[in-house]
Amino acid sequence: MTTPAVAALKRAFPRASLAYVVEEPFRRLVEGNPDIDEVLSIPPRQGVFSFLGFIRRLRREKYDIVLDFHGGPRAARIAWLARATLKVGYELKGKGLFYDIRVPRSREGAAVHSVESHLNLIRAAGIEVNEPLPRLILPAAREGEEARIDSLWEEHAFTGAKVVVLHIGAGNEFRDWGARNLGELAERLAGLPGVRVILVGSGQDDPRAEEIQKKKAAAVLSLAGALSLIELREIIGRAVLFVGPDSGPMHIAATTSTPIVALFGPTLPANFSPWRARATLIERPLACRPCKQRKCETKDFRCLQSITVDEVLKACRLYLEIDSSLDSSL
Fold first, then answer.
1. What is the pTM of this model?
2. 138 lies in a domain?
3. Which residues contact 203 (CB under 8 A, 6 or more apart)?
4. Which DSSP symbol is given to 123?
5. Beta strands in the chain (DSSP E)
6. The pLDDT of residue 245 is above 50
7. Residue 208 belongs to domain with CATH number
């Protein structure tokens, strides 16, 4: 969600050279971004000598501006030690000395979308951000990545089908709609005329995917743990609909033109809705939301668990253009 800010910066200074620092596992998410001139990757865990060598490399470049979109301990140290002319970061406890300009992440009494927070760093540096605001950007699939999805599409005869991508992962129990709900939704979607369902998630979601597949094996394919993030984007981009909780895959879906049905539990759409995407957001107006996802006050995770399969399916039908009378699973 930093990519709209990067695009706004490049739009304001088209001749500027922009370098993006990222941890190695996520390099592919920015490598090939048209607004980024150089990707500087660092390992997730870095020894002292490796870190100091990286800082020396940054200092040799003599950057004019460093923008810390992350705010974590290592990112703050990089921003501070790089010796840029101007250092901009968030107003975070214990990190005030790291930056020349500090920006609050939120305004009192008003939620700020994560993308807007990043854009506010650009504005704080005195750079004008013009409308329309940029969309989320991910690099296009490379030839080999695209060929793999082409082969998969042909192998499973998806051409001409209404493919729905269903994210069955969650990250934690607070954002987990539950195997039962996901299974029933997958079964009912797969029972609709012309609809095929692709299950996506991490390798840890394999047991859940296998259980969901049992009832509609011919119409449900699991790719949980089998895709890179760029391949996931390619799959979503070819589908007619993405369904899932507030998550990384949901934001990846927002980089495509594919519509989204998103389920929000402990988090708020005001902070994390799919940015500039065609989407239906389903949530419950509970007083305990948002929460820090450490302890459920109601002990039953009702913010998500009270969302019914019927209402999610109804939202899906609007995008699938299928009348409710044609639902063979009812």
1. 0.92
2. no
3. 224, 225
4. H
5. 19-23, 38-42, 65-67, 86-90, 101-103, 162-167, 195-200, 220-222, 241-245, 260-263, 279-282
6. yes
7. 3.40.50.2000
Residues 177 and 305 sit within 8 Å (Cβ to Cβ): yes
In 91-174, beta strands by DSSP E: 101-103, 162-167
Q: Are residues 155 and 300 in the same domain?
A: yes
Same domain, residue pair 120 and 204? no
Residue 106 lies in a domain: yes
Structure confidence at residue 328 (pLDDT)? 43
Q: Which of 87, 86, 82, 20 is nearest to 51 (CA)?
A: 82
276: left (phi over 0), alpha (psi -120 to 50) or beta: left
Instruction: Judge if 88 and 213 occupy the same domain.
Output: no
- Domain that includes residue 170, residue range: 143-323
Of 124, 157, 190, the residue that ends a domain is 124
pLDDT at 324 over 60: no
Nearest-CA neighbor of 76 among 57, 53, 51?
A: 51
SS percent in the chain: helix, strand, coil, step 5:
40, 15, 45
